[in-house]
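Hello,

Our lab assistant flagged a job as stuck in the queue for most of the afternoon. It eventually completed. Since we weren't sure the result was trustworthy after the delay, we are filing this so someone can double-check. Below is the sequence as submitted and the structure that was eventually returned. Let us know if re-running is recommended.
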Amino acid sequence: MPTTRRSILKSLGAVPLLLSAAPLRALAQTAAAPNAGAAIPPILFVHGNGDHAALWVTQIWRMESNGIPRARLAALDFTDPLARNDDGVAQVNRSSTEDQRRELGAAIAELKQRTGAAKVALVASSRGGNAVRSYIKAGGDGDVSHAVLCGTPNHGVYASDAGLGNEFNGKGPFLRGLNEGDSEVTEGVAFLTLRSDGQDKYAQSDGRFVGKPGTPTGVTAEGPELRGATNLVLGALDHREVAFHPRAFREIYKFIAGREPDVIAITPEATVQLSGLVTATPGGVPTNRPVEGARVEVYRVAPDSGERIGAALYEGRSGPDGRWGPVDTQPPWPLEFVVSQPGELTTHIYRSPFPRSSNVVHLRAAKPAKPPAAGIGAVVMLSRPRGYFGLPRDIVLLDGQQPADIKPGVPIDAMTTVAIPAAEVGRAVAGLFNEERIVARAWPLGENRITVAELTF
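-- returned structure --
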């Protein structure tokens, strides 16, 4: 078992399913890859609260680029990824710690069976680390070689005598049970924690990020660390970047493989095939429950205008399992995904070019953060699923302006919105985050349409 150590790694900032109610399934990438990584245990990526497998796509691509076969890389989708307010009280479209532990166990068993491996490595973001620790402590240590916990609130988002039933309360029974004893890890499993140096919104001493400004949380920036683990600090990365940033990849790979990665950059493939899921948001709650019969269209678009180039590359409807695709594309092509389903706004999602294939390109319908004012003809949102917008840390521009709805200081916002006047509907709108630029089109709200420019990095 590795002894506890702390290494302060200075960072300059951001670099420019197990699915549905059906039995959970680990979603592996599908194409062949070199066998250089065959000696590394299969890796299962575990997402956080409200998220889905697609957040791991860049780290999966980096693993592939270092020779790990696609069949040995998988990511799961928890059916209901949002935690309950009280872990012991049923809540519609939300999950308990036991729900998560059970679904993770099913994913591990499937990955072991498919690969023939005796053990797997687990890499988890945020809440996903709670499920990993719970599974291992409940007797799953024989299935797991490595556990990498990225930004996991191991000692809670707060520690309070109130709300003890909440999964994220450091004084509650769930986390107290995981943290009891001289060591907070399970012998025989190699544990690594990755955390931020003060920029994680869920590891703050003041309660302003949990709705209680001025109230001490009882938690510090060291909250994600564990006694008995290897604990690394990744500089000024935010809560999500400690899982999805290139700096995080280096440490994840090195810990599991036992050596430095050959490359950090993603190696493009000559041809790219994409597919994924359409997932539901009942009552505005993000889930990974499949949407059957949603219409999905995919277009190649011009990088400087967002205008469509030619006919649709793909037109189809999601199946009973929510899956859409596949569609063949090429690494230089920016894309527009259109998802239409009853009761939701038709969502036009613009993406940077995909350098490699993926079957976790998941689609969810979007809606404005607040009702648009009178005279607004379109709403365009810039979304960063794998991190937050940090000001003044990052360069963030939407429609040529630094957004006013991004709070400065500790990064907490992953979405920014611009309202387009009715007279300007249909025009190009550019979003810029550091070195990644996406140009979208402002689709009319009057036709029940909304635009999302979704960043990859």
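-- support follow-up --
The delay was a queue issue, not a problem with the job. The result is valid. The two ends are 34 Å apart (CA to CA). Residues 1 and 190 are 6 Å apart (CA to CA).
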